[in-house]
Structure formats: C-alpha cells, structure tokens
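Subject: Protein record for review, amino acid sequence with backbone structure tokens
Why sent: The fold of this protein is of interest and is recorded here as tokens.
Enclosed: The protein record, placed directly beneath this head.
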Amino acid sequence: MSNAESRERARELNEFARERHPGLVGVEILSSTADEVVGRLDVTAPLVAGTGFLWAPVVITLADWLCASGMGPNLPEGASFTTLEIKTNFLGTVREGGAIRGRARPVHRGRTTHVWDVEVSDEASERVIALFRCTQLVLMPRSGP
C-alpha cells in the first residue's frame, strides 16, 4: 500500500469514527496499512482521572481502535471480526496537555484468529507507557439458508 493509500484509509477511518467512541475521545488515525496502524490522542481535561493522570480506559480505546482499524485489509472477502480478548500492561502515564501515540502490528494472522500488539508511548518523550495485545476472531460469512 502506498503512502497516499495509507493516508486515504486513515482519512476514511477517522471519518467513520468521528461520531463513535474513538472519535469522541479524540483518537486520530495517522496511517493504516495491513501491516501497521499508527494513531494519536491529545490528553485533554475530560480524559484525565481524579489522580491527575490519563485515565487507563482511554489508552485502551486508542490501542483497541488501532487494532480494529488494521483488521479490514487483513480479512477475507465478506468476513468480519470481533474481539475475543484484550490485555494491557501499564508502564507509565501522561498528564493533561501531553499526547499519546500508538503503533499496532499484527503478530499472528491465522484463518480464524488474528493477534495484534500495540505499543502506546508518550508522544513527547517516546517513552512506552502501555503494552496492549488483543485477539480477534475472524467471522466468515455464512453460506446457504
């Protein structure tokens, strides 16, 4: 996939998500190919927990949407998918005014399942703040009545 195609796919994904949860919290897809999806999120006041730090579910939103965005180009014609499992290890956080960036890559693309890993980093320092893994179930179209 060319850079132009990756940017066009990112634009389409951002448009799709605008009025859905990822868009409502501010996730922006920067590039999207079958082998890698990159996105970011500004840390704003509504996304900060009572501790003064980025709320953990927001990090999961970014990571999960990056993985979901990468599934489309990896699916057989007519197939869909659903998440079977997610796991996140938090290694740090970011305060209001900062930003986070995620990079998702498939580590397994089987016939019935895909596994994706995401590193989420503080955009300014590039320090990894979370490691995320999800397993997706490939849903093949039903044949016959």
